[in-house]
Amino acid sequence: MVVTMEDSTIQSTFPHPYFASHSKWRWFILTTVLIGASMSALDVSIENIALPTLKRYYHISLHLDEWVAMAYMLTLTIFLPFFGRLADMFGRSRMYNLGFVIFTFGSALCGMAPNIEFMIIARVIQAIGGGLLQANSVAIITQCFPSKELGKAIGIQGAVQAISMSIGPFLGGLLINMNLFGTKWRSIFYVNVPIGIIGTLAALYILPKDKRSKIKEKMDYIGSITFAAALLFLVLALNEGRKLGWESDTIVLYLVLFVIFFGIFVITELKFSYPMMDFKLYKIYDFSAGNITGFFSYYVLFGILFIMPFYLENIAKFSAFTAGSLLTPIPITMSLVAPIAGALSDKYGPPIMTSIGMLICSFATFCLIFSGRSPDVAFLLIEFTALGLGMGLFTPPNNSAVMGCVPDDRLGSAGGILNMMRASGRVFGIDISGLIITSLTAVYAGTQGYHHIPIRYLPHHIREHGFMHGFVTVIITFTVLNFISAILSITKKGRVKMAKEHYLSE
Known about the structure:
Strand content: under 5%
Helix content: over 70%
CATH architecture of the largest domain: Up-down Bundle
Order of helices and strands: HHHHHHHHHHHHHHHHHHH
């Protein structure tokens, strides 16, 4: 069988002769990567449905219960760049294999957790495995697919991740209700174990062997530690600020520590020969613009998914089931559109698809400003479908553009940074949107004579009017961010090759 030039780039490193000689071997690699990508994405949402059950089971406070989800998200966010850097140094397939093992082990520990402290530690271990999977998935795909198929492959990955995240709550509820073998809520974690074992075996057998780097690079421990610490304290400040008050000593301390650690990080990266985060990558316009727009897109998406249930249930007076059903078109449309968008970006270029996607998102969020207190169901369905369409058109081409403009030996770092930016967008979109709404609700209550009164004690009509002030403001910010993303996306055309060559020449 003839092997084409596009398949020969890493043919010699492929572990099995059948796949090495098969013209479609790269699709087996993609399938293996999708196992890890779907498993880690599924776990972001599947445990949310179990939080009330865990609260009752362990007899704990709501604040402690929230750390089951927060421990996973924090660990995933702050270590993604570090995991990407590890992959560039020690091998992407090796780190992906390790991610499967750690994630599977962490899932088993979560399932057998005797108390909440054990559960939180197990979630951190699970997140380390998930981070190794997420940081390397796009890099492995980029390494193994020719440029004319890269968008399509990343689009398929995006579709699988969107589906996994959307079915997470449903699958979690189903597993808890089924009570398989008397496991109750523990089954939502145990279900990862057989999948993880299959993924581990597939990764060992199918993923290409890593090429040894000719250059011995030293690990940037100071940069890695200070960056993780800086991001940790920033996220903690944003997450805890609404509960403790922005003037509290704890929040001020978090912000001061963020500034200190981030300052040390920047100084270290500028002096270190092999930095954890290579600032030269940001000289590549497509890389910088793609990461900024990736952050904005996830900021908007998860901000919408966070605030809309409150609006739909508390203001529009829909049931929880109806509210959830109305939001379903967002992930469904994303999953349907993503592979098509990826394929079209291979043909017409990422800038066209990403800018069109963000313009559609801008229109969708702009129209939500006028939804009012009694929105029409058909209107909401159209808007949420349009938002899913825009996100589906934007995400795979944007990922393809970011990964396609960096040198091969920095694919892991680029993938880690890309996923970190999107994860940060998810966290900040939720926290800052909540901050805007609560702050403007308090301001409105003050204009009505209710000064320094907790929101939960305000009269019902004051809370509703205050919420709508904050809601409209948040939606306006979403519209502005989407429009900025559209402008940044359309200006990327023609800069990739030039910027990449400039990086390599330095």
